[in-house]
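Morning F.,

Quick status update on the modeling queue. The single chain you submitted on Monday has been processed. Sequence for confirmation:
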Amino acid sequence: MTTFKEIRGNLIKSTSTDPANPQEGQIWYNSTSQVLKGQEFLEAWSSSGTLNTTRQGGASSSAGTPTAGWFAGGSPTTGATEEYDGSSWTNSNSLGTSRTAVGGAGTLTAGLVFAGDVGGNNPTGNTEEYDGTSWTEVNNVLTARQAMRGCGPQTAALGFGAYNPDTPTRTEEYDGTSWTNGGAHPTPFYWSGYAGTQTAGLMWGGSTPDPDMTYEYDGSIWTAGGNLNTSNRNGTAGSGIQTNAIAFGGQNPIVAATERYDGTSWVTTASMGTARYRHGGFGVTTDSAVACGGHTGTANTNVTEEFTSAPTTKTFTTS
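Structure tokens below.
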């Protein structure tokens, strides 16, 4: 008979108390309670407070936290801005320029929105900064476009992709004052997923010739990463960093699928309760994230969900 040691290369330890800081996958025998235990991570989405304005295609604070973020703009074309405190949404001052298919970056008190569609498939290059209270117009992106995606803080943001025949591979970098060209993307795309920073960015999926692909940005060059498991989807949202990110939702068909990226490959984890696309998403780690708004395929939604990943000790029983 094959033993655990032969499979994993180590024996199951016997201990009178549970380890203080067990690692994921660790197994031990508690001699006091006389049970076999192990450490695992439970990952799940749960419902939270709904948006006040139902919409899709808005921008979100990609560098925000699950207890301090914002969602702005969207379709039907609006400038509505709402702030999230971890349980509910509160209306704030609207964008100076109402728009949908808008890019976003930054935090609750230092946010950034850029580009978008001001209505009727009319792209804009308008950029605005948020201070936690109001929006202020600053220098435009270099090329007006829509369905641009973004990540990073307000003073070092990354913007990429476009629904614009002339600029679908353009990458731009923002330094807190103005935009400059970054390294061009290898393929045209728009409505991709997003995570990371200006010098360690991550995009995946989207409307591209190869919608399963992932690309990593090092501050100058995009290189290919591992393929998504749930293929052919656009309009996803995400959170995390280049080497530890999650992607959730998307269209074609519309899914609730969530995947985790480790810098090399994607693995499937818990799905959202509401399948959607073109929704907002933020959270700087993969331990927790927020998904808000979007389109379900039949209508816009105001549903908000929170993702949590937490270690838990499991007791093994026979059945």
